[in-house]
Design a protein that fits this description.
By secondary structure, the chain is mostly beta strands. Helices cover 8% and strands 52% of the residues. It is built from one helix and six strands. The chain is globular.
Length: 122
């Protein structure tokens, strides 16, 4: 027997969360700038789809504050990183642009040692 969910009108349900976790390789140098007395760092992360070597999703990542300062110092093209945060969108001239606003990142491996290929092999 499957339990059923009965709620009265006074009970609240958390409808949704916006959290995404990715692991991939950084696609280029970290770009940083100072905005409203805080550092923001931007970089892209390539994530291969499971079982599909030639199918890669690219994520534009933004990280703020001390995490941005660390990213600026430590992350380089080819670094294998895990990133956690929320997806945000903005519209500009009819296009929708998505950004992963990271609240945490960390290294999960080292930069690929050889430069043969695209650096996206895991």
């Amino acid at each position: 027997m499957t339990p059923s969910l009965h709620l009265n009108r006074k009970e609240k349900i958390v409808a949704a969360t916006n959290t995404i976790n990715i692991i991939g390789r950084v696609g280029g140098p970290v770009q940083s700038r100072f905005v409203a007395e805080r550092t923001v760092a931007k970089f892209s992360v390539a994530v291969n789809r499971p079982g599909k070597r030639d199918d890669t999703d690219w994520f534009n990542v933004e990280v703020w504050g001390k995490a941005a300062e660390a990213a600026e110092r430590m992350i380089e093209k080819g670094s294998l990183v895990a990133v956690s945060g929320a997806m945000n969108s903005r519209k500009h001239e009819g296009q929708t642009y998505w950004t992963l606003n990271a609240n945490d990142w960390q290294f999960v491996g080292s930069k690929k040692q050889d430069d043969s290929g695209d650096g996206m092999d895991f």
